[in-house]
Amino acid sequence: MKLDRFNQQILQELKLNARISNLELADKIGLSPSACLRRVQEFERTGVIKGYRAVFDNELLGNGFVAYVSVGLGEHTKCAQKSFEQGIILADEVRECHNVTGTFEYLLRVETKDLKTYKIFHSDVLGVLPQVNTITTHVVMDSPKDDRA
User: Fold this and answer.
1) Residues 107/114, Cβ–Cβ less than 8 Å
2) Model's pTM, two decimal places?
3) Domains, the chain
């Protein structure tokens, strides 16, 4: 799908407010509602738009502790990676898991209630996975920019 001016504007507006009505979206970008809807549906059909979601205030929900955790594996094999991924997918505290290049294999975004519950996750989840060789925790103190929403 070609990313012309209208398509770029549609994506930008949906990124800012995925709940915008088609009528309002069409009006903002200068298309007819039917043309706008066709473009949005094409983005959905082709997988450019993977879904819509709500963004929560995790602190208000009781998850005020956020950390990025780098994990190094003991073996650099596909089997070790798959086993680690299967173990980590089940952990509710892990909000993101990325296989990365560099001195470690994985970067996790972990959210827990507080440092005490993070310590439990560290020892009872990461600490028991046999593939894990190193764990480095980076505690988030503030997030002046966060575009994941």
Assistant:
1) no
2) 0.79
3) 5-46 (1.10.10.10), 65-139 (3.30.70.920)
- In angstroms, rounded to a whole number, what is the distance separating the alpha carbons of residues 35 and 37? 5
- Token pair recorded at residue 95: 């909000």
pLDDT tens, 20-47?
999 999 999 999 999 999 999 999 999 9
CA nearest neighbour of 105 among 66, 148, 140, 135: 135
Give the residue with greater pLDDT, 93 vs 53: 93
Using a 10 angstrom Cβ sphere, with 0-12 exposed, 13-18 middle and 19 or more buried, the burial of residue 123 is exposed
Distance CA(135)–CA(40), nearest Å, equals 42
Mean residue pLDDT of the chain comes to 94
What percentage of residues in the chain have a pLDDT greater than 70? 99
